[in-house]
UniProtKB/TrEMBL annotation:
Coiled coil spans: none
Keywords, alphabetical: RNA-binding
Family: Belongs to the RRM TRSPAP family.
Entry-linked PANTHER family: TRNA SELENOCYSTEINE 1-ASSOCIATED PROTEIN 1-RELATED (PTHR37457), TRNA SELENOCYSTEINE-ASSOCIATED PROTEIN 1 (PTHR37457:SF3)
SMART domains, alphabetized: RRM (SM00360)
GO terms, molecular function: RNA binding
Pfam families cross-referenced by the UniProt entry: RRM_1
Superkingdom of origin: Eukaryota
Annotated ranges, domain RRM: 2-85, 95-174
Listed name of the protein: tRNA selenocysteine-associated protein 1
Length: 228
């Protein structure tokens, strides 16, 4: 069996509520375990959801994350993660790219599957949304192989077929990695490796309007579910 963490639950959301929420989305869950506060005995705001196999767990992570949680009032959204401290189960290293110009209908599983069909090491796709769940028009894709990350940057630049407009790509380096690279004198993608963004067309302020700096490879917001 494969467990996942389901977070940001309200006190009234018990095991039956969570089971029904997944069932309404066509997903079968083996068990749900609501975690309780050891001091008060009340719900701690999260639970563990167990699936029959790893592929079912991964499908739910990519398909349901960020979607409205059925029956919630006020409305909540599925907030799912691997039950392994924000890491993929096998602990592989991860390499990310920034994907811009996403049309409004693109969701996590669309982004993930679009890259997975060509790059087998693709691990996840995350479309960034506002507090109401509306897409901000950009996201991130993570790979287990750096060679596939680099290939995707070149081969998928301007690609069509994901939503209704071509996508724009850039290298995504977590801020902590970029800051560490400054201290080292040469970044993971610094001048020592000769990597250049010059080959990509990027309109002025195209990425910085979202808090992303394409020249440093850093971004100012946080995505704790992806370790950023």
């Amino acid at each position: 069996h494969a467990p996942c963490l389901c977070a940001q639950l309200d006190p009234y959301m018990d095991e039956t509520f969570v089971l029904n929420a997944f069932a309404s989305q066509g997903e079968s869950v083996v068990t749900v375990k609501i975690i309780r506060n050891k001091h008060t005995g009340g719900p701690a705001g999260y639970c563990f959801v167990e699936f029959s196999d790893q592929s079912s767990a991964e499908r739910c992570l990519h398909r349901l994350n960020g979607k409205a949680l059925p029956g919630s009032n006020p409305q909540r959204r599925f907030k799912l993660n691997y039950a392994t401290h924000n890491k993929q189960p096998d602990g592989r290293p991860e390499f990310s790219i920034f994907v811009g110009d996403l049309s409004a209908e693109v969701e996590n599983h669309h982004l993930y599957n679009f890259f997975l069909q060509k790059y087998p090491s693709c691990m996840s796709g995350k479309v960034i949304t506002d507090l109401s769940g509306i897409s901000r028009g950009y996201g991130f894709v993570r790979f287990g192989e750096e060679t596939e990350q680099r290939r995707a940057l070149v081969e998928m630049q301007g690609a069509s077929g994901l939503g209704n407009r071509p996508i724009k790509l850039s290298l995504a380096t977590p801020k902590r990695r970029f800051l560490a690279s400054i201290n080292d004198g040469a970044g993971e993608y610094g001048q020592s490796q000769g990597y250049s963004y010059g080959q990509y067309y990027q309109p002025p302020n195209y990425y910085t309007q979202w808090g992303y700096d394409q020249y440093t490879g850093s971004y100012s917001y946080s995505m704790p579910q992806y370790g950023y």
